[in-house]
Specification:
The protein is of the alpha/beta class. The chain contains 13 helices and 14 strands. Strand 4, helix 5 and strand 5 form a beta-alpha-beta unit. Helix 1 packs across helix 12. It holds the Pfam family GFO_IDH_MocA_C3.
Length: 379
């Protein structure tokens, strides 16, 4: 029986949804054991939370520096091997950099950093360290998203000719229309969140999904963002046109003021022979569209799916799987990498995906501020 990977967590304490998501995901395939970390800025709160979730308090630290110092003093086979960074955006870069410099593997929430320059520094640091680095673009873990990727790679759609990705939420309505609230939330504070709210939070998921499922790279974008109020300095809605090549074009539509929407992430890819459509709120259905043919509905767990899709399916057909399972598949892929096992490169988003995501965010804001002009995404 293989030894479980020792996992540390930074952030994600209290009633944090992200914290619950990562802890449940890490437990799914019996690959990890949460042994410590720093869940909150205050040590006593972290200790209290550790007791609440049933882990020992001897490896709960007041900050990242103490964690690194104490863990490195332990015998190598007892140390934390990988750390999940679940803090607000502005802490991702300094924490991830320190961890890489000290030989830890890293699982980082997105956006990976707050600037593209930070992302490039992180890439250089990771290359020197040789550590595993994963960015949790969670939706890439869904079995039917992976099936979509494999079908496109196998040419079942033919040449791609249209890309349409929508990510609509309405949650920020309760904040944006209240001057005091929009001035105080960290999500709309560029010092803590980066230069973008909507594009940085959910638009980057859409951008990563485009490149993940199609296997193409976005070369140029044109963005039109909406800030809604003059005193609000961060976008909360936006439309971004895409060019992957002269003849492969598309659009990303993201919004956090789409009133009444919950988490409407829809991915539509059209080729010369067929189209595929997937909706995050109904993730077990992948729709295949062909001219003159009835619509086909593919579901997870069936032998007609790809090996990559089936590897991410835990339950028999007809048993719904969701966001926890999707994140669990990412953690499973990271575990394989840490353990030196063979793994499919699509099993977890890597640092390069986070780097391109940061480039996309900055270029989208730049495109808007320059008067909605086309700008190039770095190769």
């Amino acid at each position: 029986m293989s030894r479980k990977i020792k996992l540390g967590i930074l952030g994600g304490g209290g009633d944090s949804l992200i914290g619950i998501l990562h802890r449940v995901a890490s437990a799914m395939y019996d690959k990890y054991e949460v042994v410590g970390g720093a869940f909150n800025p205050e040590l006593e709160e972290s200790i209290s939370f550790a007791k609440e979730i049933g882990i020992g308090t001897d490896r709960i630290y007041k900050d990242i520096d103490t964690l690194i110092e104490k863990e490195k003093s332990l015998p190598e086979n007892e140390r934390i091997q990988v750390v999940s960074v679940l803090t607000p955006n502005f802490l991702h870069f300094p924490m991830a950099k320190k961890l890489l410099e000290n030989g830890f593997n890293v699982i980082c929430e997105k956006p990976m950093t707050t600037t593209y320059e930070e992302a490039k520094i992180l890439q250089e640091t990771q290359e020197k360290s040789g550590s595993i680095f994963a960015v949790t673009y969670t939706y890439t873990g869904y079995p039917m998203v992976r099936q979509m990727k494999e079908m496109i790679a196998n040419g079942e759609l033919g040449k791609i000719q249209k890309i349409d990705v929508q990510y609509y939420q309405g949650w920020i309505n309760s904040i944006i229309h209240d001057k005091e609230k929009r001035s105080s939330t960290w999500r709309l504070n560029p010092e803590k969140s980066g230069i973008s709210c909507c594009v940085g939070d959910i638009g980057t998921h859409a951008f990563d999904m485009v490149e993940y499922v199609t296997g193409l790279e976005v070369r140029e974008i044109l963005a039109d963002l909406n800030y809604l109020y003059k005193d609000n300095v961060m976008d909360i809605d936006g439309t971004v046109l895409l060019r992957c090549s002269e003849y492969v074009k598309g659009v990303i539509r993201s919004s956090q003021i789409a009133t009444g929407e919950e988490n409407n992430f829809t991915v539509k890819i059209y080729g010369e022979k067929a189209g595929l459509k997937w909706e995050q709120e109904n993730p077990n259905y992948l729709y295949m569209l062909e001219e003159g043919q009835p619509m086909r509905v593919l579901k997870p767990g069936h032998p007609y799916n790809s090996k990559l899709s089936l590897d991410g399916t835990k339950l028999p057909p007809g048993h719904p799987e969701g966001i926890f399972d999707s994140m669990g598949n990412i953690y499973k892929g990271v575990a394989r990498a840490i353990n030196g096992e063979d793994y499919h490169p699509a099993e977890f988003p890597q640092l390069r995906d986070g780097l391109r995501g940061m480039n996309f965010i900055e270029k989208a804001v730049h495109s808007h501020k320059e008067g909605n002009v086309w700008v190039k995404i770095d190769e």
